[in-house]
Structures are given as structure tokens and as C-alpha cells.
């Protein structure tokens, strides 16, 4: 009769087994997981505690080291004696009562070419008090390094010095062939102006008129009598082959003008004369006249 109450089909038996296994797994997990979590939490707290102790030990050692350095410096007797701040070593500065780091800064300043030219310069040492400077000033001597010039010799050299050669009035030179050496022989033209002229000539491709010096803000009226420009020596740009970058690099053409030239070629073919460009608003008669000396077809 009891079998009627405890009889289960095969499916019911499998379900009961799965249920029992699930209960065992859940119970075991609840038993073991908190213990492992507690162990991990304890391990984390121990690590934090060890790190804190390590940092504290480092801080203590640093304080002990600083205290020992301070005591060592305080116990070092101050010995005031004549000294040259440009020759005294770091130990000598410490004996004079300066802190070791101040002596180190002075040595580094001298190693980089620094020099105390007069005793008052020593006041600029960082950390040096006015009282310390006044106590050191009577013992400080700065040796003169520079040899004094013989005034008579200097006057003679100045009188006999060679003056730069300048051309006499009436001499004219070609702006398109002369170099900076020749340009500097023109009265009123120095090295900077000579380099300006040559540099602008390279950008232009040569000068066709002396008046172009006005483009670089030079006084044309004063220089006109010394120069002439051979227009046949200018370098020309082929408008049917040059790119936008090449065209806009010329001082007399901007980006929009260069773009018009390239677009005109792509739409209407090769350019045969500058009158074709005069139809565009980007080109004024003055622009056409200037670039006529630097373009070809």
C-alpha cells in the first residue's frame, strides 16, 4: 500500500534527481562563497595596510635623511676667508656658510659660462640673504679677466682700418647679372639691401625696369642712376603648361589669376595672347602690362 504513495514514473524520478542536485549546488555555493569573499576582502585590506606602512617608512627615512643633512650643515663651522666667486669650489662655498644646494647652483652657473664680473653680482645668487652678502663682501675679490686695450694701438687700428670699396659716380651695373658683392659697392647699398634685391630678382625671374625696386620699398630715385635692367634676360613662364602652383608663385600673379589661366586653358584651349586674359575681371591693364615681360605661349 505504501508503494502507491512513493511510486514515481521515470520522468518524475528524473525531475526529483535534478531538483536534489540543484539544492545541493545552491547550498554548497552559499556555504563556500562567503568564505572566499571574506578571504579576498581580508587579502585586499592586508595589501592596503602593507602599502601604507611602506609609504610611511619611506617618509620616515626621508625625514631622518633630511635631519641628518641639516645637522651636518649646522655642525659645519663657518670659516670666513678671502675668496673669488669665479674660482672657489663647492666645498669652499659651504665653509663660507652657504647651503650645499646654493653651492651646487653656483657651480652649475659657472659651468654654463656664467661669471661674476663684480662683487655686487654675487647678490643675485638665489637664497643668499642680504646679511650673508654683507658678511661675505669684505672677503670677496673678483679677478679682472679682460685685458685692457692699449688706447694708442686701438686708435691706430681704427684709423688704418680698410673702408669698404664703393663705386664712383657714373658707374652703372645690370640688375639682372650682378651679385651681392657688386651690389654692396653701390653707395647706400649694404648687405641686407643687396640680399633683398637678389632674392626678389630670383622670385621675379629678372628685372625689366629699375622702377621694380619700388616693389621691395627701395628708393628708386636714389638708385636709378646706378642701375639698368636688360629686359631680354627675364625668365618667362609658359602659360599653356604651367600649373596653378607654379603660376601663383610669381610675385605678379595671385591664386585667383592663376586659377583663371588654368580654367581658360581647359575650356577654350591654348592661350595665344594676353588679350584673352584681359576679358576677365581678375586682370587689370596694369596686371597685363607687368606679366607681359614674364610669360610666353
Automatic annotation (TrEMBL):
Which Gene Ontology terms describe the biological processes this protein takes part in? protein secretion by the type II secretion system
Classification via Pfam families: HHH_3
Entry's Gene Ontology cellular component terms: type II protein secretion system complex
| Record's keyword terms, sorted | Membrane, Transmembrane, Transmembrane helix
Entry-linked InterPro entries: Endo/Exo/Phosphatase_dom_1, RuvA_2-like
Coiled coil regions, renumbered to chain? none
Bilayer-crossing regions = 15-33
Domain of life, source organism: Bacteria
Name the chain's protein.
Competence protein ComEA
Say which species the protein is native to: Bacteroides graminisolvens
| Lineage of the organism | Bacteria, Pseudomonadati, Bacteroidota, Bacteroidia, Bacteroidales
Amino acid at each position: 500500500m505504501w508503494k502507491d504513495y512513493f511510486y514515481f514514473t521515470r520522468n518524475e524520478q528524473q525531475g526529483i534527481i535534478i531538483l536534489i542536485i540543484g539544492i545541493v549546488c545552491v547550498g554548497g555555493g552559499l556555504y563556500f562563497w562567503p568564505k572566499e569573499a571574506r578571504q579576498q576582502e581580508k587579502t585586499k585590506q592586508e595589501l592596503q595596510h602593507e602599502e601604507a606602512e611602506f609609504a610611511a617608512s619611506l617618509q620616515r627615512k626621508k625625514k631622518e635623511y633630511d635631519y641628518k643633512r641639516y645637522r651636518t650643515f649646522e655642525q659645519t663651522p663657518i670659516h670666513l676667508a678671502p675668496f673669488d666667486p669665479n674660482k672657489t669650489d663647492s666645498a669652499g662655498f659651504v665653509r663660507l656658510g652657504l647651503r650645499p644646494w646654493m653651492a651646487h647652483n653656483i657651480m652649475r652657473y659657472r659651468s654654463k659660462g656664467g661669471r661674476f664680473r663684480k662683487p655686487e653680482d654675487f647678490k643675485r645668487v638665489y637664497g643668499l640673504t642680504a646679511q650673508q652678502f654683507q658678511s661675505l663682501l669684505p672677503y670677496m675679490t673678483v679677478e679682472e679677466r679682460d685685458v685692457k686695450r692699449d688706447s694708442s694701438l686701438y686708435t691706430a687700428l681704427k684709423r688704418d682700418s680698410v673702408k669698404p670699396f664703393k663705386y664712383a659716380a657714373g658707374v652703372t651695373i645690370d640688375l639682372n647679372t650682378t651679385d651681392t658683392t657688386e651690389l654692396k659697392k653701390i653707395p647706400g647699398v649694404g648687405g641686407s639691401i643687396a640680399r633683398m634685391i637678389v632674392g626678389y630678382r630670383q622670385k621675379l625671374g629678372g628685372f625689366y625696369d629699375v622702377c621694380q625696386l619700388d616693389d621691395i620699398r627701395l628708393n628708386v630715385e636714389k638708385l636709378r642712376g646706378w642701375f639698368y635692367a636688360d629686359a631680354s634676360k627675364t625668365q618667362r613662364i609658359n602659360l599653356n603648361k604651367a600649373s596653378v602652383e607654379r603660376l601663383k608663385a610669381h610675385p605678379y600673379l595671385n591664386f585667383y589669376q592663376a586659377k583663371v589661366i588654368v580654367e581658360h586653358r581647359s575650356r577654350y584651349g591654348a592661350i595665344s595672347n594676353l588679350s584673352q586674359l584681359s576679358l576677365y575681371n581678375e586682370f587689370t591693364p596694369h596686371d597685363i602690362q607687368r606679366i607681359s615681360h614674364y610669360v610666353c605661349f
